[in-house]
Hints:
By secondary structure, the protein is of the alpha/beta class. It has helices at residues 38-52, 80-88, 93-109, 126-129, 160-163, 171-178, 184-189, 202-211, 217-225, 240-247, 252-260, 265-276, 279-292, 297-316, 322-332, 350-355; strands spanning 14-19, 22-27, 59-64, 73-75, 115-119, 122-124, 136-139, 144-146, 195-196.
Amino acid sequence: MSTSIPALCSDGQVLAEVNGCLGLIILNRPQALNALSLAMIRDMRTLLRAWRDDDSIQAVAILGQGREGKGPAFCAGGDIRFFHTAAKAKDPALGDFFTEEYALNHEIHVYPKPYIALMDGIVMGGGMGISQGAKLRVLTERSKLAMPEAHIGLFPDVGGGYFLAQCPGHVGEWLALTGQVLGAGDAIALGLGDVFVRAEELPGLIEQLRHADQTSAEHVVATVMERAELAPEPQLLAHREAIDRHFGFGAMLEIKASLAGDNSEWAQQALGQLNANSPLALAISLELVRRGRNLSLAEDLRLERNLVHWCFEPAWRDAHCETLEGIRALAVDKDHQPRWSPAHSEDVSPQTVQAMFESPWAKHPLADLQ
Ligand SMILES: C/C=C/C(=O)SCCNC(=O)CCNC(=O)[C@H](O)C(C)(C)COP(=O)(O)OP(=O)(O)OC[C@H]1O[C@@H](n2cnc3c(N)ncnc32)[C@H](O)[C@@H]1OP(=O)(O)O
């Protein structure tokens, strides 16, 4: 089969190039920090499938277009403004978005050719979902990795229940519940990144990937590795003992009480992060990471698809929807004053949490994932 770039549907939000044996994907929506639209997800799937079946393509790399005059962004997640508009309009495209995004996350994890993610700048939520399955995750000193969904009344999806659960000790719970942002040193130490390349090296690296005659997957990987340096020292992992002690408790109330009883600046800051997040989302996120330790990626994504269905289901009944409220406060009205319901972890019903893990479908939309 000949090398080609298939027709794309996202109106330039995803750009594609073929240089030698390398297929390059550029997320090109810098004004929204490359947040993923449904069309972008479809374009990525189209490209990955075409290049998987094209013998002349040996490797794929992905990067995010930077903002003029602002810090770089790989991808700030799924398009949460779309979530808000679509849920309000009861638009079935919202369900398609999650099914197709999670399927894309799975395709990346099992991609048969090296997929290399250049994770410069903001890498959050859905940005983690399209990079954590990469064979080579390249970070810079500007990388900011996080799963901040509990802050918008959601949970760490896009495979977060799987890859956070793989972090050592109870670090996965800490990241899922606080949405803590990690730099390159911590992320690499925790297994959420592979190699460090200084940001000033990136333009040269990208130029080389674009124009050098890339002849094999090994050649592409070597081109990246030539620029790799020793990662910076981890900073936050100085708190590993405290993370495991506080976040190892079984229930949210116990975690919050444990942090409240610790007067250290770090513990009080972590408690502040928890108190800003939706109590319902915290309970779901904790349960997801705990369950994730015994799940395959496909099983985790199916559970996440159940959860996200129930997170938005109240919007279809015009009832209070925790996720809509979280997005409203962060990205629509931008008042940063979400009215969580329930407002306290004490009032979150364990039965409600367990019920949200159940499938609402006779045939699950991700039934075919292996
Ligand atoms: C299934 C998938 C689920 C998910 O992925 S859920 C989403 C997870 N991600 C997030 O929750 C991150 C949301 N974004 C933020 O919290 C902030 O952004 C950042 C901390 C990443 C960066 O803050 P700053 O540097 O101050 O930039 P700014 O002014 O907030 O953003 C620039 C423009 O980008 C839009 N934007 C940012 N993230 C998203 C997003 N995830 N979806 C849609 N739009 C986004 C903003 O609204 C704004 O736009 P305007 O200039 O028009 O006000």
